[in-house]
Amino acid sequence: MNRVIDIISRVRQLEQQFSKREQLVADFVLSNLEKVSALSQFEIAEATGVSVATVNRFCVTLGCRGFRDFKIGLAQSVAVSLQYLGGSSKESSESELLVTQVFGALVDTLQLARSQLDSITLEKAIEALADSQRIAFMGVGGGSANVAREGANRFFRLGIPAEAYADGYLQRMLASTLQSGDIVFAISASGEPLELLDSVAIARQYGATSIALTRVGSSLASECHIPIEIDIPEDQDIYKPPASRLVFMAIVDVLAAGAARKRSERVKEYLRRIRTSMVSLSKDTGPKPIGD
């Protein structure tokens, strides 16, 4: 079983529990995060003026099985954590500058994604969606799950039964109920979640068509009949929301608009009914977003 230990947090939390000599090792580790993983047990002992046995006791106190286990855990923790440690805390928070940065990044990312989209693949996806009997949108985690919900929100308006699922167990169960004429639409920025790969494989064996919105060359892309692949580098600014989420939503909107035009007369009737059902709530009969 894989253990997840945040070594950096453990060192900070146990400051009151270390012996005086172990605390010397702890201070050295926190001050040299980037290089400790490359040092031997003897080198750390020599640098801190303690014995090798003390270094080993320090590792055990952290909850590691020994020095080797500590080095592996620290390397993993540092690889993920360095972008969140240090740096300036005085970066501008002026609203005008933030608007420029966030909107600018979004516009640039949309343009990049637009240049990568393949029109033939998009047309295949639109044709399949327009002719589908049922669409199951699937995503895991925060961004992809939200895009899946937006996909279901867009397509039920077109008169196509559409639902969104973010729970891995439920995805597998739902996938087993799909059949020919249905679509499993998997969304993932990484394209590697096992939940999605398993669900797509299950749905395919029962005849469902699979569409992926994901990273270029990912496992999910290779698993699906119609992979819509884009390569979007994430902004290094950790405080800005990821632009890929909004790019995925824009692509879903393109697919929904295309499918709506393929089913033009039926869609107009469904939209008319939906808009009529909202009049008594808004008292506004003029043009406005449906269901807003």
Secondary-structure map:
Blueprint: H1 7-13, H2 20-31, H3 33-36, H4 41-48, H5 52-62, H6 67-81, H7 95-116, H8 119-130, E1 134-139, H9 142-155, E2 162-165, H10 168-175, E3 182-188, H11 194-205, E4 209-215, H12 219-223, E5 226-230, H13 243-262, H14 264-282
Parallel strand pairs: 1-2, 1-3, 3-4, 4-5
Protein model, in words:
A five-stranded parallel beta sheet has the order 2-1-3-4-5, sandwiched between helices. α2 packs across α5 and α10 (168-175) packs parallel to α11. The radius of gyration is 26 Å and the shape is elongated. It starts with 6 loop residues before the first helix and ends in a 10-residue tail after the last helix. α9 links the parallel β1 (134-139) and β2. The protein has 14 helices and five strands. The mean pLDDT is 87. The protein is of the alpha/beta class and 292 residues long. The longest helix is centred in the middle third of the chain and has 22 residues, at 95-116.
What attributes does this structure have?
five-stranded parallel beta sheet; 14 helices; single chain; 292 residues; 58% helix; elongated; alpha/beta
Note poorly predicted spans: none
Largest sheet: 5 strands, parallel
> Quick one: overall form?
elongated
In round numbers, the mean pLDDT is 87
Structural class: alpha/beta
Task: Compose a concise summary of this entry.
The chain is α/β, with parallel strands linked by helices.
